[in-house]
Amino acid sequence: MINPSPAPYDIIGDIHGCAAELRLLLAKLGWRPVSVNSKPWGSESWVHPAGRKAVFLGDLVDRGPAILDVLTIVLNMTIQGHALSVCGNHDDKLARWLRGRKVKVTHGLDKSIAELQPLPATQRNAIASFIESLPSHLILDGGNLVVAHAGLREEFHGSQSTQARSLCLYGETNGQTDDQGLPIRLDWAANYHGQATVVYGHTPVKTSLWHNNTVNIDTGAVFGGALTALRYPEREFVSVPNVEGTATP
Ligand SMILES: [Mn+2]
Hints:
The protein has 249 residues and is α/β, with parallel strands linked by helices.
């Protein structure tokens, strides 16, 4: 889980099938599109001339208009050594669907199914294997940077436990639901006093703000917000607006 690959990183928030916004963001960050030969994927990949690495925060899939394009880009960048990813709750659920498990087709999973169902089994299995290979969280920059889809309290940094994985994917809730049936989330970052910077997403925010050395960079691209990256170690935010229409929560 501790990854020795050196900074600098471009950490990218929840994409949810927004491939057009991903391309715009990568271009704005200085990445260049390249064509690679890596069957069974499409050929699109991106490289950064200064050797930066992308770190994807999870929730690559569901809800948005171009899920397979996003998977193709992220898979090719990962295979070529230009990207790392952590697993999001939507990615995890899609992998379970791909393996034939019974899952509820809610929260935009129908969009992923519509794009992936027609693919040959080899390609669907390869996508499932990729998702299953994703760690719950990454510890980078010699322990100074922790990346997890829904964030992670300090005492779980580096933990491989089921509880740590659940916190990384789903975040902290109090077990109750609000009047819309959504889980009531606990603000773990309000009580965070760790030394490592924690970058996370999962719950869309209007603006990314630092809070006790943590920051949420999910700015709701698929809901009409923006797709945001954090350049690390520079700690600069780079965003592009939604350009391809919005999904409903
Ligand atoms: Mn999520």
